[in-house]
Structures are given as C-alpha cells and as structure tokens.
Amino acid sequence: MKVEIWSDIMCPFCYIGKKNFEKALLELSFKNHIEVEWKSFQLDPTLDPSETITTNEYFKSKKGASAEQAMQMTSQVTSMGKSSGINFNFETALITNTYKAHQLLHLGKKYDKSNEMEERLFKAHFIEGKNIGDFIVLTEIGQSLGISQEKI
To answer: How much is the pLDDT for 35?
Structure first.
C-alpha cells in the first residue's frame, strides 16, 4: 500500500500528523508493506527566501493576529505536540521560504532517506531553530544522512 503525504516543513500540524501516523503504523500487522511518499506543499510560497521572521511575527504580519493571539496559537500547538512526543520551540523557530528544503527532501528520495529527511527538517525547524532555507544548514542536514555535499 502506498501512502502519499502532502506536507510543508514549517507546518506544525504536519509534524504532529507524522508522529501520530508513525505510532499508528507500529500497530499494524502489515506495516512492512506500506510505502510512504512525502509530497511537497508550500504553505506560503510568497515568503522571501533570503529573510526569516519568528513564528509570532509571522502570525502578526501575515495573519493579522495580535501578539496575544499569536502566543495563544503557539501555546495550543505546543500542547498538541507534547501529546505526540514533540517539544516545539516556537520562540526560536524561523519562518522562511521552504522551497530549498523541499528540494532537499526530494533529493533524499533518491537515497531512500525521505522519511529521515522529513524528520530532520522538522526537527531543525521546530526544535533547533535552524533556518531551513539556508543552504549551509540544508547541506549539514543532507550530509548527516549520508548524502555528499556535491549531490546536495
């Protein structure tokens, strides 16, 4: 069975869904017969790839949320993440254009590393506060999964 998952690296609900999906797979007797294919979907392709802003600033500027509303939104998602085993760090998460990160994810497919790549990208963005639009950061992530700098 093939499961296609459309996702953006800066979508916290996608990360929560990934963790919940993986937990559900563990319960299936036919889990070894399931192929997962990660597909790319940019939540906001209008973002400038050379700029980053914090999550709260993004909610305020792009969604029109007040500072209090932005904090409430991230607080609620943080609680949801904890129940899935994710410790979101929205204070350091940098919002940027994710096109280059999606390119790296697709490169990971060629090396049968797409699930690991998706996890590393989510972790870099949501937990480590890394700029997933930065080529150096993406190169480090790719190399950590055994892909050469030349291929990246």
So the answer is: 92
